[in-house]
Amino acid sequence: MRAKISYLITAAVLVVYFILVGSRGVLLIRSGTVLTVTFGVAVLILPVIGLWFLWKNTQFVRRANALAAELDAEGALPVDELKRTPSGRIDRDSADEVFARRRAETEAAPNDWRSWFRLAVAYHDARDTPRARKAMQRAIALHDGKTVEA
Asked: Membrane-crossing residues (predicted)?
């Protein structure tokens, strides 16, 4: 729940920022000189890109959460079996051990979105966020029935 609240606050702050930047771009365009119109258009492009990125990221999070809810309903969510240091951080060797099992599970069933979801969690636990995101995108695509190439 705390993560959702943080995400919503961050998204709201970004939207306010995009509105402020966009209004400055409009003011520059209204000035009417070639230079200010050029800068105004350039300034307006930034919030458009930011809103697109925010939208795509929000879609990704919602779809990943939907997969998690479906796995939870099936009783198939990955169990947190990781050892932790006294400070609470995940032990690297423990994460590597779980990751190896999840990778083998995914290699055995490459078209199963559930195994890709669990692999994404293992990548995240191993602090490999780019690969975690790619594995989750693959899980989402497989769940949606899309053809995924290796």
From this structure: 7-27, 33-55
pLDDT digits (tens, 9 = 90+) for 29-49: 999 899 999 999 999 999 999
CB contact set of 135 (below 8 Å; sequence gap of 6+) = 106, 116, 117, 119, 120, 123
Beta-carbon count within 10 A of 76 CB = 12
In whole angstroms, give the CA distance from residue 70 to residue 99. 22
Q: What is the CA radius of gyration of the chain?
A: 21
Secondary structure class of 70 (helix, strand, coil) = helix
φ/ψ of residue 144, rounded to 5: -80, 0
DSSP category for residue 148: -
Cα–Cα distance, 78 to 118 (Å, whole number): 6
**Three-class SS state of 21:** helix
**Residue 84: strand pairing partners:** 90
pTM more than 0.70: yes
